[in-house]
From TrEMBL:
Keywords: Hydrolase. Pfam families: Abhydrolase_11 (PF20408). Signal peptide: none annotated. It comes from Pseudomonas mangrovi. SUPFAM superfamilies: alpha/beta-Hydrolases. Residues 1-21 are annotated as: Disordered. GO terms for molecular function: hydrolase activity. InterPro entries: AB_hydrolase_fold, KANL3/Tex30_Abhydrolase, NSL3/Tex30. This is Alpha/beta hydrolase. Residues 35-225 form the KANL3/Tex30 alpha/beta hydrolase-like domain.
Amino acid sequence: MVKGQSAGIDPDQYPQSGQGYSELRWTRPAGGAWATLILAHGAGAPMDSPFMERMSQLLAARGLAVVRFEFPYMVSRRANGGRRPPDRQPVLLDSWRQVHALVRLQVAGPLAIGGKSMGGRMASLLADELGADALVCLGYPFHPPGKPDKLRTEHLAQLATPTLIVQGERDPFGGRAEVAGYALSPSIQLHWLTTADHDFKPLRSSGLTQELQLQEAAQVTADWLSATLAPGS
């Protein structure tokens, strides 16, 4: 079973690029990719966490090229250990801009952006600015756990980029019942995973497993991107 927030970091595996992010990590399909998705990690786990690894594999199996990177604070954690907190938002956003520009030079086809939790939230703040073809958020942090009054949704009301948010029904960062009351742009489509939490782990009583939920998330993402990025859509 995948536990998306429990991965360790190998300090020798992914060197710093010399810019405001790590070296890129690509997961490519066996054949040619029909689109590329830049997928950023969440606040607590690196780009090679079990969650990020499995999602990248599942998406690549469906024809998507997935490229991952790490924000500067996670590069520092990998190099020096410890539990350095996430960088301030301007640093995170600048990292996203740099990575998007680099990947855009490397791929000619459709390019979507997104990420897990914080990584997806940062992508959502830049999607319109970058002219992204699509945005995918895996577990969007609508608010901090236990603080439903501290919403992170203001920009989502005006978001123009076609967006898919895959969310667990009992996500402590925003569950189904509360999100139903938020003002979200018509460009945003929500897909709910039955009884799942922030890492897409369902209740045992549901008869589902985290692996099944990850597969559903990957299939929904691939199907939605295929329809969204199709010529004339």
